[in-house]
Amino acid sequence: MKVSVIGAGAVGVSVCQYLLLNGACDNLVLVDLNDEKAKGEILDFGHTTSLTFSRNVKLTHGSYADCAGSRLVIITAGAQIKQGQTRDELALINARITVEIARELEKVAPEAILLFATNPVDLVARFVIRNTSYPAERVISAGCVLDSARFMKIVADKVGLDPKNVMGYVLGEHGKTSFIPWSITNIGGLPMDAWCDMVGRPRIDHGKLLEEVKQAGFEIFQRKQNTNHGIAASLYRIVQAILFNEGSILPVGVLVNGQYGIKDCVLSVPTLVTSRGVEQILEYPLTAEELAQLRLSADYLQRLAAQVAQESGLQ
C-alpha cells in the first residue's frame, strides 16, 4: 500500500518515522519544495532499514507525479505559525497553498484519501473539498484528535492514571472555539465527578481544564518554536484507522452538512473512520449547552471561510 507525505518539515518527517517503524505501508513517498531536504530525509531513513525488523518499505523522494497510485496522502506543507501569530492569520496563505497541492494531487492520485495537518486545518480541508474533485468523505482534517489527546493526558496527570483510562473528546474547531462535551466524558466508564468522588480525589474544574487544553500547544511552541511529536502521533492514529480499516471513532474534522443543525462546515465531531475515509458522521445526543457551543464554533469557521473566499477568489 502506497502512502505519500507532502512536506518534509518536522511534522512530515515524524509521520514518516511512524509509518516506517510500524510497517503501515510498503511504499512511501516524500515530497517537498526543497527537493534536497526530501532526498536527504529519504536517504537517512533508508539506512534504518538495515537495523529494524518492520516491513522493508520502498522509499522515494520526488514530485507530485511520484504520488501516483497513493492510497493515502498526508499533507503537512504550508506556511508555519510564527511567534505571536494566530492560526487565523495563516488562513489566506494556507488555503491557497493546500488547494494548489490538492489540485496537483488530483491529476495523479484522484482516488486517494487526503489527510490534512496544515493550519488552520479545518478551514483548509473545507476549501479543498469546495475547490477540487475530491469527495468530502476522502478529505479529512486532523481536527481535534491532538486536542483530545492533550485533554486525556492532562486529566490523567491530575488523577494519577494512564491517559488511556480517560475517555472524551474535544470538539468543534481545532482552535480557540473548541469545547469539551462533558456529557460524553468519563474516567474508567464513570462520569469524571463520580470517579473523583469514588476515589477521594478533588473534582476537576471544567473551565480551567479546557483552558489548559487550549494553552498546551502554545506552551510547547514558546519553548521549542514548533509542535511535532503530538500532531505526528495524532496523524498516525488516523492513518491506522484508515489503512487497517479499524472502524475507529475519532474526533476528526469532516464536512458537516445537516448533522447537529450545521451546514457546509468542516469541524471536529465524533466520526467513524474506515478504509473508505469518513464512513459515518455520528450525531451524538449532546446537551443543549454543548450543541450551542458546537454551533458557535461552526459560526466562527463559516465567517472565517467567507472572509478567505472573498480575499482569495476560492469557493
Q: Could you walk me through the main structural features you see in this protein, from its secondary elements to its overall organization?
A:
- This protein is an alpha/beta fold.
- It contains 9 helices and 14 strands.
- Helix 3 (87-108) links the parallel strand 4 and strand 5 (113-116).
- The mean pLDDT is 95.
Strand order of the largest sheet: 3-2-1-4-5-6
- Given as residue ranges, the uncertain stretches (5+ residues, pLDDT < 50) are none
Residue-averaged pLDDT: 95
**Helical coverage, percent range:** 40-55%
Overall 3D shape: globular
Number of helices: 9
Beginning-to-end CA distance, first to last residue: 33 Å
Oligomer: single chain
- Whole-angstrom Rg: 19 Å
Number of strands: 14
Helical/strand content category:
alpha/beta
> Biggest β-sheet: count, sense, barrel?
6 strands, parallel
Order of helices and strands: EHEHEEHEHEHEEEHHHEEEEEH
Task: Quickly describe the structure.
With 315 residues, the protein is an alpha/beta fold. The chain has helices spanning 10-21, 35-48, 87-108, 121-131, 145-159, 192-199, 206-224, 229-243, 288-312, and strands spanning 2-6, 27-31, 58-62, 72-75, 113-116, 139-141, 166-167, 186-187, 190-191, 248-250, 253-256, 265-268, 271-274, 277-281.
